[in-house]
Structure formats: structure tokens, C-alpha cells
């Protein structure tokens, strides 16, 4: 259990659910940020990834938990490497764009 406010102890199941929501929201933000950085619409990204626009919307809305193969499709479609760092105190999810030399 974790202590949130004076006199309140958060039950373990609530803390776990909160953590899962935070992970889903971090991924949603990472997908949205990279997609908009590239100037893509949800439909554009869906076409690149072989998915539906509705699926992209659910991912960006934190309404679904993607599988590893789906994450790989997203990374490829976003021309990026997906970096996920997880530990007890910090979560980081981001797409790092591939850099290519124009020369």
C-alpha cells in the first residue's frame, strides 16, 4: 500500500489500476506526440501501420493495451524506435525518430 494523503492509505488494487492507467496514458501521449510531429492524421498512421483509424484512436485515447507486435507496427509506421523504461518510481515511453543522413 502507498500513502497518498495524511491518514489515507491507497489499497494495493487501486494503486495497481492507477499504475496501469498511467502506463496506457504514457503510451497514448507518445503515439500522439510522434504522429503529430510527423504531421500525420490518425488515418495516415493507420494506413502506414495496416490498422484502422478507430484502432489508432483507441490507442491514443488509452482505451486499449497494444500487444508487442502492434507496438512494433506502430514504431515502424512512425519511423521510430520505441523506448519504454519501467521501474517502481518512474515510467518513460517515447518514440525516438530514426535519423538519416541526406548526403
UniProtKB/TrEMBL annotation:
Domain HTH cro/C1-type, first and last residues per copy: 31-85
InterPro entries from the UniProt entry: Cro/C1-type_HTH (IPR001387), Lambda_DNA-bd_dom_sf (IPR010982)
CDD domains: HTH_XRE
Name of the protein: Helix-turn-helix transcriptional regulator
Species assigned in the record: Nocardia tengchongensis
Amino acid at each position: 500500500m502507498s500513502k497518498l494523503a495524511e491518514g489515507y492509505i491507497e489499497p494495493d488494487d487501486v494503486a495497481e489500476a492507477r499504475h496501469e492507467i498511467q502506463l496506457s496514458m504514457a503510451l497514448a501521449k507518445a503515439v500522439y506526440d510522434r504522429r503529430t510531429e510527423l504531421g500525420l492524421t490518425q488515418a495516415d498512421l493507420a494506413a502506414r501501420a495496416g490498422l484502422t483509424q478507430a484502432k489508432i484512436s483507441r490507442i491514443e485515447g488509452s482505451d486499449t493495451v497494444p500487444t508487442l507486435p502492434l507496438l512494433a507496427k506502430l514504431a515502424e509506421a512512425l519511423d521510430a524506435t520505441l523506448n519504454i523504461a519501467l521501474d517502481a518510481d518512474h515510467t518513460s515511453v517515447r518514440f525516438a525518430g530514426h535519423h538519416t543522413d541526406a548526403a
